């Protein structure tokens, strides 16, 4: 069987907006027992994704990046911009503050095999399924969906 993403995806997924309070998104994730939510603008166009790992910053906090002092100057050994982004996530109050604004997506007509390859290569657990023309979210496909489909194949 060579199924398409549309055959196994969850259609009409629960979505949030960038201005959604983080606590609301956390409640949705917990109540629906899901690990990520697509983030859409007012027209339904995908603008990001928020996952459990994005929310971990809220609990773990941020460590100061390693640095050395040299002649009364601070030299960071890692990119300070990355540190600033981590602080922003840790202090964020809305979905827009902590979401990944460059989500990896797939279109409904692509194969499940292609979705599995993308998830493996990009090390993501879920892919928003997006209409190519409108960029609107039409579904979600997860690793669990792929495994479930594999279990039905003979």
Protein topology:
Layout: H1 5-8, E1 10-11, H2 22-32, E2 36-40, E3 46-51, H3 52-60, E4 67-70, E5 73-76, H4 80-91, H5 95-98, H6 112-122, E6 126-130, E7 137-142, H7 143-152
Antiparallel strand pairs: 1-7, 2-3, 4-5, 6-7
Helix pairs in contact: 3-4
User: How many separate structural domains?
Assistant: 1
Helix-strand string: HEHEEHEEHHHEEH
The side-by-side strand order for the widest beta sheet comes to: 1-7-6
User: What would you call the shape?
Assistant: globular
Helix content: 25-40%
Describe the 3D structure.
The chain has 154 residues and is an alpha+beta fold. It has one domain: CBS-domain. It has seven helices and seven strands. A three-stranded antiparallel beta sheet has the order 1-7-6. A two-stranded antiparallel ribbon has the order 2-3. It has a two-stranded antiparallel sheet with strand order 4-5. Strand 2 and strand 3 form a beta hairpin. Helix 3 crosses helix 4.
Summarize the structure in short:
By secondary structure, the protein is of the alpha+beta class. It has 7 helices and 7 strands. It has a single domain, classed as Roll (CBS-domain), CATH 3.10.580.10.
Task: Sum up the structure in keywords.
3-stranded antiparallel β-sheet; 154 residues; alpha+beta; single chain; two-stranded antiparallel ribbon; CBS-domain
């Amino acid at each position: 069987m060579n199924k398409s993403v549309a055959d196994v995806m969850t259609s009409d997924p629960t979505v949030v907006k960038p201005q959604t309070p983080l606590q609301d998104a956390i409640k949705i994730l917990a109540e629906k027992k899901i690990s990520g939510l697509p983030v859409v603008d007012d027209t339904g166009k995908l603008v990001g994704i928020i996952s459990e790992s994005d929310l971990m910053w809220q609990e773990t906090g941020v460590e100061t990046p390693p640095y050395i002092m040299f002649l009364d100057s601070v030299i960071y050994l890692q990119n300070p911009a990355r540190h600033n982004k981590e602080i922003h996530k840790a202090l964020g109050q809305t979905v827009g503050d902590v979401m990944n604004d460059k989500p990896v997506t797939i279109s409904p007509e692509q194969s499940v095999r292609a979705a599995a390859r993308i998830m493996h290569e990009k090390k993501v657990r879920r892919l928003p399924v997006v209409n190519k023309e409108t960029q609107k979210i039409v579904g979600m496909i997860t690793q669990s969906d792929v495994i479930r489909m594999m279990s039905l194949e003979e």
